[in-house]
User: What shape does this take?
Amino acid sequence: MQNAQLLSHVDTDLVTREQLALVETPAATRSFKPVPHVELVNTLEHVLQLNHITIRKEQFALRRDGSTLFGVLQLAYQDTTDGMAALGIRTANNRTMSIQLCAGLSVFVCDNMVFRGDLIALNRKHTAGLHLRTEINHAILRFQDHFGRLTGEIANLKERPVSDTDAKAVLHDVFVKGILPIRLLPEASHLYFEPFVDEFKPRTAWSLHNAFTAVAKEMPITTRMPAIQELGRYFGMTNGIQD
Assistant: This one.
């Protein structure tokens, strides 16, 4: 799913949203308020739609006892063509896990409890005072604020020209720092300096970033996601390329 990755392999099965609706939910107690998995997903979609955000693709994995849900959503604002982002979901109705949402340009969710994104937008226990709609509203506001900053950084990278000398310096820096394995250096250099797709042709910081993320797809998912996040920090926070 491009920027949203879900791995299901430990006592879980991939399921559809329709199948989630068939899962029985435990009864509530005075201190514990389980939330039906399908209600969580449907409420999340409703709040996203109110904020003009569309679910482009979705994927879910369910523990075989029905207790625990993992999921990823690939998103886009309805009025943009390239504003892709993602949400990760995990929750359990057996008191072992709170309702959690992670967000970012890329997210990775695995049933072995790996839960990775740029931002933890929600982490709410199933207490008696839980108001699901309110909590998700707050989470989406956090997501929008974070996504707005990310898209601003991307716009800046697209407008930032890079000389060949600076590009070579950044290529050297990224691999020497160990952000990506050195074996990917030749391919990253080739993608940037001899581009064969339009998105790599402008000599900008965004094209260089795309060259790195393209070769990172050859890495295992468990190391790819941390590497992509580290690349984001390098380009966005350390300003490794000077204007």
Remarks:
- The longest strand covers residues 53-63.
